[in-house]
Amino acid sequence: MAPNVVVVAAEPGQLKAQFTVAEEHLNAGGTLHGGYTAYLVDVLSTAALMTVPPNLAGVSVDLSVAYMKAAKAGDVVTVDALTLKVGRQLGFSSVDLRNDAGQLLAQGKHTKFLI
Length: 115
Fold this sequence. Notes:
The protein is mainly β. The protein has one helix spanning 34-49, and strands spanning 6-11, 14-20, 59-67, 76-86, 90-98, 104-113. The chain is built from 1 helix and 6 strands, in the order E-E-H-E-E-E-E. Strand 5 and strand 6 form a beta hairpin.
């Protein structure tokens, strides 16, 4: 689903990935589709969460995304996923998407129930 997203760094609880916005990522307005952004928040925060014991993917109980700036085709986007806390039953994550200028494009929050 995201073959052009490349993980460039990872350590326990953290993951950094990059991708270049392509035509298939655009909405009707010609900017990065909000659904694709939400998908990346889901998938990359889950990957970061799985690097922290008990190393479970869990299931989503809450996911939100705030969209702050548009990205266009050809823009390189860096995604930083951070596991904020892992408790007995819940894991909490934050994800920032930034452009090459370091401007915040979107910020996601993700809570997962750890089965």
